[in-house]
Amino acid sequence: MKLLITGGAGFIGCNFIRYWLQRYPKDSVVNLDLLTYAGNLANLADVEQNYPDRYHFVRGDIREYPFVDDLLARHRPDVIVNFASESHNSRAVLNPRLFFETNVMGTQTLLDVAREHQIARFHHISTCEVYGDLPLDSPEKFTEEHPYRPRTPYNASKAAADHLVRAYFETFHLPITISICSNNYGAYQYPEKLIPLLTTNAMDDKPMTLYRNIHNRREWLSVLDHCRAIERILQKGKIGETYNVGSGVEKSIEDIADMILAALNKPSTLKTYVPDRPGHDRRYLLDSSKIRRELGWEPQIDFESGLKDTIRWYVENRMWW
């Protein structure tokens, strides 16, 4: 089988490419990435070296129909997995247009081309933030049937993309699946995101800037467990279905900062506080019982050991960041 991975030079995409090529020695991967600031070919240097006949990189923009159409005509992938996305909430506050151009119009271009070339499966990666947020004291979890209530431009752009993907299934019978995942952590995550930012700042004794609402919580999942979930959906997922992917492990910003400081043996005085960004969500928690029940997926990496491994990776790979 041949897979086209969009956004494969980014954090989750590069981990998925590496995971898939290791697991499936007869498969090949084409990686389409524009290489914006968060895309980094160094993320896949070992993949290029280890799988020269099974991995191919193409630089390009998912918004450009003729280019993407020609790419599919030349490489003829069986499956598209769409990781390509502008994904940082704070950047979306500053430049909403870019997020809608990439996340919505780019996804539509991919859907049109997938339909034209009769792709066997189009799998779309989404985020828990499409559901909005939950009160800190709420017992509620987001199920796949929960209404979408995005609160930031980034969230709204991802929600719109999800609706497009479902519409192409309903209208054109394009064989799609969607996974909605909680916050990921792991190696190769660009250090603007919480865990790598706090880790690298603490390593260099720089202030660890935390939003003032430090008790806001997120659900955390190892990127490798996310890769396993996508694998299971591609193998066993029902066409047209959406699957929540979460660990059930919630940690506040303060929890994360304290765990990083303890792992690096750094003082708590490094913590500093800044005003919240506009639309800062309080809490997300996914009900992932559907993928567990129907597809037999379970997370394998507990948060404490996974976080320690992630911190160790940033310590050992200073040249990367």
Low-confidence segments: none
Strand-pairing-aware structural class: alpha/beta
Q: Supply the number of helical segments.
A: 11
| Order of adjacent strands in the largest pleated sheet | 3-2-1-4-5-6-10
Radius of gyration, taken over Cα atoms and rounded to an integer in Å: 19 Å
What is the N-to-C succession of helices and strands? EHEHEHEHHEHEEHEEHEEHEHH
Overall pLDDT confidence: 94
Report the sheet with the most strands, covering strand number, pairing sense and barrel closure: 7 strands, parallel
Classify the beta-strand content into a percent band: 15-25%
- What is the end-to-end distance? 33 Å
Shape: globular
How helical, in percent, are the residues? 40-55%
Per DSSP E runs of 2 or more residues, the count of β-strands stands at 12
